[in-house]
Amino acid sequence: MTLATTDELAELPSDWSRALCVTAHPDDMEFGGAGAVAAWTTAGKDVAYLLLTRGEAGIDGMEPDQAAKVREAEQRASAAVVGVRTVEFRDHRDGMIEAGLGLRRDIAHAIRRFRPELVVGYNHHETTFTGKHNSPDHRTVGQALLDAVGDAGNRWVFAEPGLEPWGGVKYVAMTSSPFPTHAVDVSEHVDAAVASMAEHREYLKGLGYTGSVRDPLVGLYTQTGLRFAGRPAIAFELVTV
């Protein structure tokens, strides 16, 4: 399944002030949603990032310890481009993230600390919107995120002194989903999205990609816009939890 269907996408709700974006790797938000983040921060909303790995297995020609440092720095620079000041990392193993209580705990604790009304994740389904098999890290983190939203609101689950439960999450939206339901207009934020993605220089070089990232991003936004009144947009799946 691809994004190119005939169903119209609804406007993603905007009645929130704080968002937490939770992904497996540096670059996940840039491939999927940085343009929307730029739109949100421009509108005065507070957005934070939580990365469950440091992307250490993401560059074939670079040793993991060095890659982790490079990719963390690239992610912080990338986030700053779209107005995100808070970027946190955890040390789950890139490419081998294990489902379980530790992963849920890390996400639940972050939700309690940031107290977001919108939580953004990355595609948790078996396939991508291109029809290809989705990576195990994406699936594992996405599913754990859905569980952790409920965990965060339960006082007796993952209790930690001084960390109050947070049941104020109103919306959970997954980017890069093969089943999008909503979208965010990025007409005024394409340049920021392109610049944010371009900060991942060493990662893109490691993938063998040396061209401009503008064309593929604009192509995706334009394709999504066919279902969103012709406006360049980023699609999300709004999930009920």
From TrEMBL:
Single GO BP term:
glycoside metabolic process
Give a Pfam family name.
PIG-L
What keywords does the record list, in alphabetical order? Zinc
Source superkingdom = Bacteria
Question: Which InterPro entries does the UniProt record give?
Answer: GlcNAc_PI_deacetylase-related, LmbE-like_dom_sf
- Single Gene Ontology MF annotation: hydrolase activity, acting on carbon-nitrogen (but not peptide) bonds, in linear amides
- The protein here is known as LmbE family protein
Name the species this protein comes from.
Answer: Catenulispora acidiphila (strain DSM 44928 / JCM 14897 / NBRC 102108 / NRRL B-24433 / ID139908)
Instruction: Name the lineage.
Output: Bacteria, Bacillati, Actinomycetota, Actinomycetes, Catenulisporales
